[in-house]
Design a protein that fits this description.
alpha/beta, 13 strands, 2 domains, binds magnesium ion, 382 residues, binds 2-succinylbenzoate, 13 helices, TIM Barrel, four-stranded antiparallel sheet
Length: 382
């Protein structure tokens, strides 16, 4: 990434300036219910946070990596290592954010670590100007569509109950996790009960091309898409599968940067892209990818990583960018946590939309006592 077209001029020119204090924190928030996928079952959200403090302004970034390498190869510990030893040493007051990100490009991969610091710096720059993030980019505010990701359940009845709840809450689309042995009949049951629901399935890479005939059975259920059916870093084999299926495929894990997105689009490996800003190196890279998708006529949406309110707020701000045309993994706070660390929490309006929080930066504030309750460690690095 040598240029970031999405950024307004001044993000390229204006110096980041001095930052009084930089801290790395780890938090652990219990989930209201375990989140099951084909790769892991998570009972809590453990996240690495970056806190910047400058002249009374406090800004936050959240790393989307998990403590384990089951969804992605990066982890909270690897991200912390990369941030401390390779990214923070590049942070100089005279650099612009875009210039800093160009220096980050020397570090290969590690997009989640890069995004964490980028997110915090954007939050700081926006707060210094007193602007919400979307306004910093010049995107008009808009209400954001909601979507829910329902983990793998013990029984089909339990799944139907969860989908029922989601539909009653007004979610604009429902994603259900699938895996070997919990796929065709499970999708069929949901589709039979909810014939018109915008329904999709996420396999988190559980299948191989040998399963193509089996996966093709899903075509009859009018899914809006199947997310990441094949291996987590594959692009080519997805193009072979997509050629055999009517249902659009969507890539998640396989897309790490704009070049992956270009390859996937050129190879027709998918017809939809899940853009997780934390997985592709940050908000600026995500804006750029969404614009590529718009130019190529490929619908895109903002994927979630069960973030705390910090990351969730950034994902909401991000969806004001052109190209985010489909509902993302943007759910109400209560779906994940009894108590989140930020205010305001995310709620759905009666028509299922989510409002952009009005405050500067991400629009949310971390509540000190709540942070304290879920803090595992806190380290000052500057
Ligand atoms: O594959 O999209 C995924 C959560 C953690 C890791 C991977 C995924 C997910 C989700 C949940 O599907 C999205 C959310 O509600 O934030
Ligand atoms: Mg996914």
């Amino acid at each position: 990434m040598t240029e970031i077209e999405a950024s307004p001029d001044w993000l390229e020119k204006e110096a980041i300036g001095a930052i009084d204090r930089i801290e790395l924190l780890t938090v652990r928030l219990p989930f209201v219910a375990p989140f099951g996928t084909s790769v892991a079952v998570w009972n809590c959200k453990e996240a690495l946070l970056v806190r910047l403090e400058d002249k009374g302004i406090i800004a936050w970034g959240e790393c989307v990596a998990d403590p384990d390498p089951y969804y992605a190869s990066e982890t909270t510990v690897s991200a912390r290592f990369i941030i401390k030893n390779f990214l923070l040493p590049e942070l100089k007051p005279e650099l612009s954010l875009v210039a800093l990100l160009c220096r980050f490009a020397r570090v290969r991969g590690n997009e989640m670590a890069k995004a964490t610091l980028e997110n915090a710096l954007l939050d700081l720059l926006a707060k210094r100007r007193g602007l919400p993030l979307h306004a910093l980019f010049g995107f008009p505010p808009r209400r954001v569509m909601s979507g829910i990701s329902i983990g793998i359940q013990e029984t089909i009845d339990q799944l139907l109950e969860k989908v029922e709840e989601a539909v009653a809450s007004g979610y604009h689309r429902v994603k259900m996790k699938i895996q070997h042995g919990r796929d065709v009949e499970w999708v069929e049951a949901v589709r039979r009960r909810f014939p018109d629901l915008a329904l999709m399935a996420d396999a988190n890479g559980d299948y191989s091309l040998a399963d193509a005939a089996h996966l093709t059975r899903l075509d009859e259920f009018k899914l809006t898409m199947i997310e990441q059916p094949l291996s987590y870093h594959d692009i080519y084999q997805h193009s072979l599968l997509q050629a055999q299926m009517q249902t659009p495929l969507c890539l998640d894990e396989s897309i790490h940067d704009i070049d992956d997105a270009k390859a996937a689009i050129a190879l027709k490996s998918c017809r939809v892209i899940n853009i997780k800003q934390g997985r592709v190196g940050g908000i600026l890279a995500a804006i750029k990818m969404a614009r590529l998708c718009a130019d190529k006529g490929v619908p895109a949406w903002s994927g979630g990583m069960d973030e705390t309110g910090i990351g969730r707020a950034l994902n909401i701000q991000l969806q004001t960018a052109p190209g985010f045309t489909l509902p993302g993994d943007t759910s109400a706070t209560r779906r994940y946590f009894h108590e989140d660390i930020v205010e305001p929490g995310v709620e759905l309006s009666s028509d299922g939309f989510i409002e952009i929080p009005p405050g500067p930066g991400s629009g949310v504030e971390v509540v000190a006592e709540r942070l304290e309750r879920c803090l595992l460690d806190r380290e000052r690095v500057k």
